[in-house]
Design a protein that fits this description.
The complex is a heterodimer of chains A (903) and B (119). Chain A has 29 helices and 23 strands. Chain A has 903 residues and is α+β, with helices and mostly antiparallel strands. The longest helix of chain A is centred in the middle third of the chain and has 37 residues. Chain A starts with a helix and ends with a helix. With 119 residues, chain B is of the alpha+beta class. Classes of the chains: A alpha+beta (903), B alpha+beta (119).
């Protein structure tokens, strides 16, 4: 900024010098001709003319004259604002809060809603799944089905498929310094279908049939940009080299573009770098049916002309012939229909969209309130400067010149506010980092991208327009003469302006009320969620979610070689009451296993139990000690349940209710055999758990089965499903998590170096996270609501203070004529009550409409909850009263002598 | 501004834009500074033209912006002075006298018809 004026100065100096030289030459010339020096100088000056005028006119020719004027305006604005620091700081702080909140929310919305799946033309991507009639399931399909669809679906351009791999965590690189990555298997046509291609090397070669990968590429892998950078230091020579993935040797054939992840959503969105493995067809892919052929998730691109519904209809027309080919009746039923959904929609789970839209709207309201507040301040300032403006206009400044000047002030203020707001954005996002990570899977830190910067700029411009244009235009409208003549500067346009400012304050009250009601509703929701009976204890439990190097334990029983010794050591740590192993803690959201199976025998209720689906968990016998849940019937696992004893299983009450009917006493299930743990080893039910919340606090208990971990040996099919993939250690301790976690981590590290990067948490935190987006929404709304309240109260306060100052003489007169203090105070308070009442009246209407949109977010409370409304009314009434009291007392204390004598 | 000094009465007032054509012509023979240009024009016009400095310096700035002249500074008798020099662009425009003659014709035609209208 500073070089600009300097440039002008230099140019001006040059011109001055030139003029001086001109005159000096003239003088010298005249003296040569014999004139006296004095006369020569006078003559030269006379002939040259008006030096200042010449200088100004010459300036006018310069190209950057405009820029210079702009800079002058800016300089003037800076000076003006520096002269009233209180005003400037108030305005900047107010606007910064509004802009910061709105911009922070936009950043999140931009990441989560506007770019949910970062693939080209993501709207045309659809996912295909199979479902039984009457349900809306999304079962993955065997290759044979996919192949038939590929042949017979002209409305779909390409059908690609992918599978999630067994392990959640893979180990890339050699022994010791292996890096943790996640992995997915993909067909060769998948990335082309997404429209993404490797930036380095090549993609998988398409094989003979159905877009699968050619067998020549069976041991090839593709790296994500993050894996390439962190593990191999962005070494381009890595392509073609052989690396180790979970102990197997694979060739790196390419690197995908930066920021590309796939599959995009999913429970195991760990934020880890990714390695993609090829799907090469095996003889098993030529089979159909459960447990025989591997199944895949399908992703297709709609033809430009096709619609989702018509493509679905097209596939469903051929699906019966496909379903017929299933030999197993259950499989046939499960593949009866085809289900299509937009891939972009699957990335958004539950009510995330709703939450974000609500929060964005809330931040928008806050911004609006801030702007209205500032507009009011600007109006007051314009009035206060009436004289100054009148003087400048009387001296010949054009109206437009002055408007420009005032607008420049507005631009400067909003600009500063946006800069401060940017700091707030970063702070706010950092403050809620944990919530953003768990709710929206936002793992990267905040980096302003083009969209966000654009949003910030447009917010700045919008703030300027909203806050400055009207005051600037209105401030220069008044005629010059009365403003110049009048002693008291404000009296001229008092009434109309006062009305405008009242409307602004009333609007602020109404909007703040709406925010407060929303905040109240969510606080009640959180309260209700916190008081849900979870069915187990949550306090004093530290949880380690392990990253398991299962490939190193191939052929060995991980329970006895890895897990059990580890837990035994944890148990002996000082201050530890008990420690337990389990595939996933309740509400953990890290690894959900659903087990479906068919029951043979017991024909009477075979239909109801045709296909049982239950949450499945393998747990250690100590789990009851750690979580302290209740058994309704029978017993939980104990030390006596070992690999050699009778196989046992525990179910919960919801399981009994769902599959054995409510009427039957839950205890009767005891002793029944549900399935075999391994061949010839039927597991009998030994206990019924009281209901608990496993997946989501707000969701009722779901059918669940638990097996005893020591009984699950590598020969059991459950071993492969569960043990290598996920295992949590839960420790009950009196000590604080801060001291407990490092010791636990040490134990894990000594057991296996790879376990050191396991993630730790407390059960309380896990429960908190499982509240879903409501928690985050409530916290953010608390901040927004409080800010809004504060702004609107300062709005009331500011207007009343101004009013009192304006009516000082009137007050003095009243007091002089015998009005009591209380009379004068009530005059001001009445004004405040009017504004608050009007604001609440409008606010009730707005809130009634706005909160209806919140309905899906609420739990245990209705949208038009009278308690939340009343609380908000009370808060605003009390706040308004406090805000009005100070100006009212000031009015009452006006000294009549002074007020009447003044001016 | 209000009162024209006596000495200026008999001199011709320059029409807007004519300076832009006259200045390059005086610079054709070499460099000059502002004062030199004023003197040269006065001499060449037989004392009839008194160039106002308020027109001269803006015109010089305009010409410089258009690239017809270039300015530099030199030290001449311990007084730093800015001098002007004609550029190739300026020279090429000098050659284009036709435009000026055309304008003179048009103007004199207009002035004559107005005279005729009065008589």
């Amino acid at each position: 900024m500073s070089w600009l004026p300097k440039l002008f100065e230099r140019r001006k100096d040059e011109l001055d010098e030139e003029i001086r030289a001109h005159i000096a030459m003239d003088v010298a010339n005249r003296m040569e001709r014999g004139e006296l020096q004095e006369r020569a100088e006078a003559e030269a000056m006379r002939e040259f003319g008006n030096v200042a005028l010449v200088r100004d006119v010459t300036h006018g020719v310069w190209r950057w004259r405009r820029l210079e004027r702009l800079a002058a305006n800016l300089r003037y604005a800076v000076r003006g604002l520096r002269r009233s620091p209180g005003f400037s700081i108030t305005v900047i702080a107010t606007l910064a809060v509004g802009v910061g909140a709105a911009c922070a929310m936009f950043t999140v919305v931009d990441r989560v809603l506007l770019r949910p799946v970062p693939f080209g033309d993501a709207d045309r991507l659809v996912e295909i799944g199979e479902t039984p009639k009457g349900k809306s399931a999304f079962y993955p399909s065997p290759f044979l089905d996919i192949h038939r669809w590929q042949d017979r679906s002209p409305k779909l351009r390409e059908i690609a498929f992918f599978g999630s791999n067994n392990s959640r965590v893979w180990f890339l690189g050699g022994n010791g310094d292996a890096m943790h990555v996640s992995s997915a298997s993909v067909s060769a046509n998948l990335f082309p279908t997404l429209g993404v291609h490797p930036v380095l090397g090549r993609g998988f070669v398409v094989g003979d049939s159905g877009g699968s990968v050619a067998p020549t590429d069976a041991h090839s892998i593709l790296l994500s940009d993050a894996a390439w950078r962190t593990r191999y230091g962005a070494d381009e020579a890595i392509v073609g080299k052989t690396v180790e993935l979970n102990g197997e040797r694979d060739t790196v054939i390419g690197v995908m573009p930066r920021g590309f992840t796939f599959p995009y959503e999913g429970m195991n969105s760990t934020g880890l770098p990714i390695v993609w493995q090829p799907i090469v067809l095996t003889p098993a892919d030529a089979l159909r049916g459960h447990h025989q052929a591997p199944t895949y998730q399908c992703l297709a691109r709609l033809q430009a002309s096709a619609e989702l519904a018509s493509a679905e209809a097209e596939l469903n027309a051929i699906q019966p012939t496909i379903a017929e080919t299933y030999t197993d009746p259950r499989d046939r039923e499960n593949a009866a229909l085809v289900n299509l959904r937009r891939y972009a929609d699957t990335a958004l789970q539950g009510n995330v969209r709703m939450t974000l839209v609500a929060l964005l709207a809330a931040s928008g309201l806050l911004w609006l309130i801030a702007c209205l507040n500032v507009t009011s301040l600007m109006l007051a300032r314009a009035t206060a400067r009436q004289r100054e403006i009148a003087v400048r206009r009387a001296l010949g400044a054009g109206r437009w010149e002055i408007v420009k000047q005032l607008l420049m002030e507005g631009v400067l203020l909003s600009g500063c506010a946006s800069l401060v707001g940017l700091v707030l954005v970063i702070g706010l996002l950092r403050l809620f980092q944990h919530g953003l990570e768990t709710q929206f899977n936002l793992h990267e830190s905040f980096t302003p991208n083009v969209a966000v910067v654009g949003a910030l700029l447009s917010l700045t411009v919008a703030s300027t327009l909203l806050t400055s244009v009207w005051p600037a235009w209105g401030g220069t409208r008044a005629s010059i003469e009365p403003a110049l003549r009048q002693g008291a500067p404000q009296q001229g346009m008092g009434r109309a302006q006062h009305r405008v400012r009242t409307v602004l304050v009333v609007t602020q009250i109404a909007l703040s009320f709406t925010l407060l009601v929303g905040c109240g509703l969510l606080l009640r929701t959180i309260y209700a969620l916190r008081h849900v009976q979870l069915g187990f204890r949550t306090e004093h439990i530290v949880v380690a979610n392990m990253t398991i190097p299962s490939y190193k334990y191939a052929g060995r029983d991980m329970t006895t070689t890895l897990y059990q010794p580890l837990v035994d050591r944890a148990k002996h740590l000082p201050g530890v009451e008990s420690a337990a192993l389990l595939t996933e803690v309740p509400l953990g959201k890290t690894f959900q296993m659903i087990f479906s199976f068919d029951v043979s025998g017991d024909s009477s209720s075979a239909i109801r139990r045709g296909a049982m689906r239950a949450q499945f968990r393998a747990v250690g016998p100590e789990m009851q000690k750690v979580f302290g849940f209740r058994m309704l019937h029978g017993r939980f696992f104990n030390e006596g349940d070992t690999a050699s004893s009778q196989a046992v299983v525990v179910v919960n009450r919801a399981f009994v209710k769902e599959y054995y009917g409510d009427d039957r006493a839950p205890g009767k299930i005891l002793g029944q055999s549900l399935f075999s743990l391994e061949k010839g080893r039927p597991a009998v039910v030994i206990g019924v758990l009281a209901d608990e919340r496993q997946v989501n606090v707000a969701e009722p208990s779901q059918p669940e089965m638990e097996v005893c971990l020591p009984q699950v040996t590598p020969v059991s099919m459950f071993y492969n499903f569960a043990e290598g993939r996920a295992m949590d250690v839960a420790v009950r301790t009196d000590r604080s998590p801060a001291t407990m976690i490092p010791e636990l981590r040490d134990i894990l590290r000594t057991a296996s170096p790879d376990l050191a990067s396991s993630s730790f948490s407390t059960m309380d935190q896990i429960v908190e996270d499982s509240f879903g987006s409501q928690n985050l929404a409530a916290e953010l709304l608390e901040i927004f609501g409080c800010s809004a309240l504060l702004l609107c109260l300062t709005g009331i306060y500011g207007l009343l203070v101004y009013l009192v100052a304006q009516r000082q003489r009137e007050m003095g007169l009243r007091i002089a004529l015998g009005a009591q203090q209380w009379n004068v105070m009530s005059l001001i308070l009445r004004q405040a009550v009017w504004m608050v009442a009007a604001g609440l009246g409008v606010g009730l209407g707005v809130a009634y409409l706005a909160t209806a949109a919140l309905r899906t977010l609420l739990y245990g409370v209705k949208a038009n909850d009278p308690w939340s409304m009343s609380a908000a009314v009370l808060v605003i009434l009390l706040g308004g009263l406090v805000a009005a009291l100070v100006p009212a007392r000031r009015a009452a204390r006006v000294d009549p002598m002074e007020a009447l004598r003044a001016d | 501004m209000v009162m024209e000094p006596e000495g200026h009465r008999n001199r011709m007032e320059l029409l807007q834009g004519t300076l832009d054509m006259l200045i390059p012509r005086t610079l054709k023979w070499g460099t000059a500074h502002g004062y030199g240009i004023v003197q040269a024009l006065r001499r060449q016009s037989g004392e009839a033209l008194q160039v106002e400095t308020g027109s001269l310096y803006p015109a010089l700035q305009r010409l410089e912006r258009r690239g017809c002249v270039r300015s530099g500074s030199n030290s001449e008798s311990n007084q730093r002075a800015r001098y002007y020099r004609i550029t190739a662009v300026g020279k090429s425009q000098l050659a284009d006298v036709g435009r000026w003659e055309q304008m003179v014709e048009v103007m004199s035609a207009i002035l004559k018809t107005e005279d005729g209208g009065e008589t």
